[in-house]
User: Which sequence fits this backbone?
């Protein structure tokens, strides 16, 4: 039974480290966009909150992002935001207001590669990559500790 728990802890640690790795990839993509002065554009847009679902420990928001690029073309994207990849407090403040004015940073060659400045995705993902990795390592160490204690008994 203890080995089953140890394997479960080890797999849980691997899962958390994988989530931290995905956050690291998000940070890399956002930094690449911010460092690309040639193709990076900034535009004013609106975010329409469609639905907010929340529980005690979870937050999820469906929204529609509308912005106009540098050529005057309008882009509309349906977005889903989670507490783990955005500043959810920003979205909660505007829950019943309709449209929220936002600043969109996007790649002018590929406008689908964009993010909303006010949600601070770089800051959130940098914190997540560290937090999830540390939690994963602790889970793995706990699994190893369970096995080591079982051998000594």
Assistant:
């Amino acid at each position: 039974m203890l080995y089953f728990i140890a394997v479960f802890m080890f797999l849980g640690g691997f899962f958390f480290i994988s989530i931290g790795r995905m956050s690291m990839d998000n940070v890399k993509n956002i930094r690449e966009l911010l460092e690309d002065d040639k193709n990076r554009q900034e535009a004013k847009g609106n975010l329409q909150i469609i639905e907010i679902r929340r529980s005690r420990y979870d937050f999820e928001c469906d929204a529609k992002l509308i912005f106009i690029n540098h050529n005057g073309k309008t882009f509309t994207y349906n977005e889903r935001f989670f507490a783990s990849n955005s500043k959810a407090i920003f979205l909660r403040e505007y829950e019943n207001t309709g449209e929220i004015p936002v600043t969109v940073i996007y790649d002018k060659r590929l406008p689908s590669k964009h993010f909303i400045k006010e949600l601070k995705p770089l800051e959130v993902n940098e914190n997540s990559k560290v937090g999830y990795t540390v939690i994963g390592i602790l889970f793995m160490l706990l699994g190893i500790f369970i096995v080591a204690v079982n051998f000594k008994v």
